[in-house]
Design goal:
By secondary structure, this protein is an alpha/beta fold. It folds into 2 domains: about 260 residues, Nitrilase/N-carbamoyl-D-aminoacid amidohydrolase (4-Layer Sandwich), CATH 3.60.110.10; about 200 residues, Rossmann fold. About 35% of the residues lie in helices and about 20% in strands. The model has no long low-confidence stretch (mean pLDDT about 95).
């Protein structure tokens, strides 16, 4: 009779720092895996006990105590099934390992410390953890299983060490954040690793939002030929059954489910919904407030908020001024009505006029300029924050990545708020996402998508008055922000040199604004947040 191990892969949403809550989930999922799936081993993601990434919370002695107590609880209370959990391991003062352990009926079957520590993009694990070198392999039901943690699988050595130590299958637990094409990149990398070691790999990843990061799950299993034998639906919590069977030719994974890879627009939209829902709910807000302008950005944010939280937890506010078109007011009202969201109208002219009158003496002799436009935006910010304070609901900002990059936003105005769902979405992507959302059920009026974008802060204003067309602007920004290309390299792609320099100078000049912006969901390879660290004060000149 062949040796078999029935795995339960826990694609679970965990909260950073909530050790007690995470432990309850681990105990609950373990009992379900034992009783419902008849699993031999349940596998949880990286640092599952404390959540990922815990950042400087790792230095707090109270967290260490909680984690060590949780480990004892899990070891002693999980019975009748083996459990693989990740946790920070405190060996001595100043030495912390990113570790995992396998417990069964009060015994430790295996213990592993992460070999490779990522220190790029959103990761700075070298700040916190000490790298280890040793492999870990344990035997369960006659099958020898090796352990890896996240970054380990992006390097050849850790998996090769496990194979050399006798592993017939490797389980990799992960805290891998979402970005466009992340699932395809993971599977491409694991296929390469499998070609080197010749054994199947089980990849388990968490799901849910943590500040600006979103974890998409996407747990999968590849056989020894590098073919996907199982893939979990992304962005969905779940417990998934996979059977490993050992025979003369090696270990074969079996499952009935291989979820499809998502198109870009669908995966990004799900990331926005997941990130917004978790940020609001994990902070305990009763709902959100959104300033609805009749434009494409606020329309998309309203749709995301509705899908994340439900219409009862969303309020929309239109704040018209004399430059606000009838089209904008009609379309904003129509979208709110379609979604069943409370919609209020609060004109800003009386407040604006009072402010301008108060400033008339000190502004005497000065021409009207962007100052008056910014007053409009800041009046709206005051009103929205007042509603936020009064209701306890968080204010969502509606700026996109293109605007944040070049500073086409008003500090303390439309940038005011607690969270920015589309902060990492370029304007051209915003249009694609709006069209995708309407395929799920039309809610964004067609005119909002097709009209020329305008801030409507002065008569006849268009975004193109101040910026290159977004079809030009966005690829320039992507080349600079995500690829770190020079002016010459971007120009070689067919863009006018003067335009490239102008755009890059705008990005540099507006760093001070971005440092004061709320956090937002990261969906690209480089977002304005933890993986963007340009200086505010800089004497660097882009070559003309």
């Amino acid at each position: 009779m062949a040796d078999t191990v029935t795995l339960a892969l826990a694609q679970v949403d965990l909260a950073v720092g909530d050790v007690a809550g995470n432990t309850r989930k681990i105990l609950d999922y373990s009992a379900r895996a034992r009783d419902e799936l008849e699993a031999d081993l349940i596998v949880f993601p990286e640092l599952s006990i404390c959540g990922y990434p815990p950042e400087d919370l790792l230095f707090h002695s109270g967290l260490r105590h909680d984690v060590e107590q949780a480990l004892e609880t899990i070891r002693d209370q999980v019975q009748g099934i083996a459990v693989l959990v990740g946790f920070p391991e405190y060996e001595s003062k100043g030495t912390i390992y990113n570790s995992c352990a396998v417990f069964r009926d009060g015994e430790v079957l295996s213990h592993y410390r992460k070999n490779r520590l990522p220190n790029y993009a959103v990761f700075d694990e070298e700040r916190y953890f000490t790298a280890a070198k040793e492999p870990a392999v344990f035997t369960l039901n006659g099958i020898r299983i090796g352990l890896n943690i996240c970054e380990d699988v992006w390097n050849a050595s850790p998996m090769q060490k496990a194979r050399a130590a006798g592993a017939e299958c490797i389980i990799a637990i992960n805290g891998s954040p979402y970005e466009v094409k992340s699932q395809r990149n993971r599977e491409k990398t694991l296929k390469k690793r499998i070609a080197e070691v010749g054994v199947p790999v089980v990849y388990v990843n968490m799901v849910g939002g943590q500040d600006e990061l979103v974890f998409d799950g996407g747990c999968f299993v590849m056989d020894s030929a590098g073919e996907v034998a199982f893939r979990a639906p992304p962005f969905e919590k779940g417990l998934h059954r996979v059977v490993l069977t050992a025979n003369a030719s090696g270990v074969t994974p079996q499952s009935a489910d291989v979820a499809a890879l998502l198109p870009v627009e669908e995966s990004v939209y799900k990331a926005l919904v997941t990130g917004t829902r978790d940020y609001v709910e994990k902070h305990g807000f009763p709902g959100v407030i959104i300033g609805l302008s009749g434009g494409i950005d606020s329309a998309l944010v309203l749709a995301v908020a509705n899908d994340a939280l439900g219409p009862d937890k969303v309020r929309a506010v239109m704040m018209p001024f004399r430059y606000t078109s009838n089209m904008s007011q009609e379309d904003a009202a129509k979208q709110a009505e379609t979604l069943g969201i409370r919609y209020d109208v609060v004109p800003i002219a009386p407040i604006y006029d009072t402010i301008v009158e108060q400033l008339a003496a000190v502004f005497e002799g000065a021409e009207e300029d962007v100052t008056e436009e910014n007053i409009q935006a800041r009046v709206r910010g005051i009103l929205l924050m007042a509603l936020s304070n009064k209701t306890g609901r968080m204010l969502l900002t509606t700026g996109n990545k293109s605007e944040m990059a070049v500073g086409y936003a008003t500090l303390y105005g439309d940038m005011a708020g607690g969270f920015a769902p589309i902060k990492d979405c370029a304007k051209t992507l915003v249009y694609r996402l709006a069209r995708y959302r309407n395929t799920l059920g039309a809610c964004i009026p067609e005119r909002v998508i097709t009209r020329e974008p305008s801030a409507e802060l002065r008569p006849g204003q268009k975004d193109s008055d101040s910026l290159p067309d977004y079809e030009i602007l966005d690829p320039i920004l992507e080349a600079f922000i995500e690829e770190d290309l020079s002016v010459a390299e971007i120009t070689e792609r067919g863009f006018e040199r003067a335009t490239v320099i102008r755009v890059l100078e705008m990005v540099k000049r507006n760093e001070y604004k971005r440092r004061q912006a709320p956090p937002g969901i990261r969906i690209s390879g480089r977002a304005f947040g933890r993986d963007w660290r340009y200086p505010i004060t800089s004497g660097y000149k882009f070559p003309g």
